């Protein structure tokens, strides 16, 4: 796993640079889009394959996801999400649409009926970036089995039950590992504040 | 405006973030998010977690020339989606203010959708979301009306849109609570309970993941 990553990761843009590429993409910058593509398209494909999609189908969906990124880039709000999180949500939603033929219900951030957050709780882009960095550190400190349960949950379009069956673990164990992982991440984020 | 007091459990938010949750249940969670800034922050955090995990995945080689193929399509004209209406009310619910995404689902209900009487004082509007045995519906309950005591084999989600209801536990389960606007109740499979509308009645979105067994005449 480590050898396969080294060549591409040398040029991998840092999270803040990814956010800037997406903002530039929104302004119609094709070179910025290409930069995002080179980094994220192969990872979106990896996500789709882990979610159970055959490689040829994954290639089709990757194209769809990246075109959606281009077309919807203007909706990206840097103070609300990192580029990686935003692209993750696009990939997740396109997967639900194309593979499961379902809509993905989501809030409309401009809905007048959206109950507003306390302005004091609003996070700045800077704080948001810091949360991302803390999250990265925190994931790195998770025990291996918790990290695996987390990754399997995010990238399998199946229930926990199927993951439990696949890994040979009782469902209760999978659920408790996940809960522990999330709790631990939360504690570490709180400590960081 | 008071904020919701009953929230989706962590596991449900996680299933929503990962996309495992099916559409009918995801609609209940997403609409709760519109009422609840706190859960929105939790959901945004889980999306960030998805982003970090995506970013650290070992890349998978793409089909050759995919970047060129995609870049050549960037200037393609795309159908511009019709501008969203800014009306915040759901006609089918008599002009009740309902946030997205549920409002859009209500607006898309077929014209011939009609209310059916479930029991005295309780009407249901079927939403045709998901496949049997999943049932997604709007419940309209008159003040003080009650659903018959029932046991569900699987999870039940209820999101209050107007008024309030209280969950009255059945003889074999603990006492429930009061659910006002924006509150999401998750009742696990196997639980026995009933739901009683408050003094102003209530309107809710309810999803049953499995069949319901009536235990006594309503």
Question: Key terms for this structure?
Answer:
heterodimer; A: about 190 residues; mainly alpha; Rna Polymerase Sigma Factor, Chain: A; Arc Repressor Mutant, subunit A; 2 domains; 9 helices; globular; disordered N terminus; B: about 220 residues; alpha+beta; Jelly Rolls; 9-stranded antiparallel sheet; 5 helices; about 25% helix
Could you write a compact summary of the structure shown?
Chain A has 193 residues and is an all-alpha fold.
CATH architecture of chain B: Sandwich
Q: Write the CATH fold name of chain B.
A: Jelly Rolls
- The helicity of chain A comes to 55-70%
Q: What coarse outline of chain A follows from CA principal-axis ratios?
A: globular
What is the H/E string of chain A? HHHHHHHHH
Class by alpha and beta content of chain B: alpha+beta
- Helix percentage of chain B: 10-25%
Count the E strands of chain A.
Answer: 0
Strand content of chain A: under 5%
* CATH uppermost class of the largest domain in chain A: Mainly Alpha
The CATH architecture designation of the largest domain in chain A is: Orthogonal Bundle
List how many beta strands of chain B DSSP finds.
Answer: 11
CA radius of gyration of chain A is 18 Å
Question: Helical segment tally of chain A?
Answer: 9
CATH-defined fold name of the largest domain in chain A: Rna Polymerase Sigma Factor, Chain: A
Radius of gyration computed on alpha carbons of chain B = 20 Å
Strand content of chain B: 25-35%
Whole-number average pLDDT of chain B?
A: 89
């Amino acid at each position: 796993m480590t050898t396969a990553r080294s060549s591409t990761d040398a040029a991998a843009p840092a999270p803040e640079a990814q956010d800037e590429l997406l903002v530039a993409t929104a302004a119609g910058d094709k070179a910025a889009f290409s930069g995002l593509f080179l980094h994220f398209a192969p990872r979106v494909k990896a996500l789709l394959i882990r979610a159970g999609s055959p490689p040829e189908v994954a290639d089709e969906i990757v194209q769809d996801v990246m075109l959606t990124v281009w077309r919807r880039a203007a909706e990206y709000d840097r103070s609300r999400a990192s580029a990686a999180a935003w692209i993750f949500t696009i990939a997740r939603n396109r997967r639900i649409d194309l593979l499961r033929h379902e809509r993905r219900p989501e809030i409309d951030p401009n809905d007048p009926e959206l109950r507003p957050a306390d302005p004091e709780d609003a996070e700045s882009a800077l704080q948001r970036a810091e949360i991302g960095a803390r999250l990265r550190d925190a994931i790195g400190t998770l025990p291996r089995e918790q990290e695996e349960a987390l990754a399997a949950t995010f990238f399998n379009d199946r229930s926990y039950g199927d993951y439990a069956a696949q890994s040979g673990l009782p469902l209760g164990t999978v659920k408790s590992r996940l809960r522990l992982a999330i709790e631990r991440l939360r504690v570490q984020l709180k400590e960081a504040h | 405006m008071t904020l919701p007091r009953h929230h989706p459990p962590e596991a449900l938010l996680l299933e929503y973030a990962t996309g495992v949750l099916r559409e009918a249940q995801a609609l209940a969670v997403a609409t709760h998010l519109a009422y609840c800034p706190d859960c929105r922050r939790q959901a945004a955090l889980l999306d960030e977690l998805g982003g970090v995990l995506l970013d650290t995945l070992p890349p998978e080689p793409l089909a050759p020339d995919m970047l060129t193929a995609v870049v050549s399509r960037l200037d393609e004209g795309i159908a511009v989606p019709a501008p969203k209406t800014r009306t915040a009310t759901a006609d089918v619910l008599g002009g009740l203010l309902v946030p997205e995404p549920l409002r859009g689902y209500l607006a898309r209900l077929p014209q011939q959708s009609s209310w059916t009487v479930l029991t005295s004082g309780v009407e249901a509007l079927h939403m045709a979301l998901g496949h049997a045995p999943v049932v997604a519906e709007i419940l309209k309950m008159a003040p003080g009306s009650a659903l018959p005591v029932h046991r569900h084999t699987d999870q039940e989600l209820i999101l209050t849109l107007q008024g309030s209801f209280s969950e009255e536990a059945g003889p074999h389960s603990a006492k429930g609570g009061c659910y006002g606007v924006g509150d999401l109740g998750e009742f696990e499979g196997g639980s026995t309970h009933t739901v009683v509308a408050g003094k102003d009645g209530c309107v809710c979105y309810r999803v049953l993941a499995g069949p319901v067994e009536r235990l006594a005449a309503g």
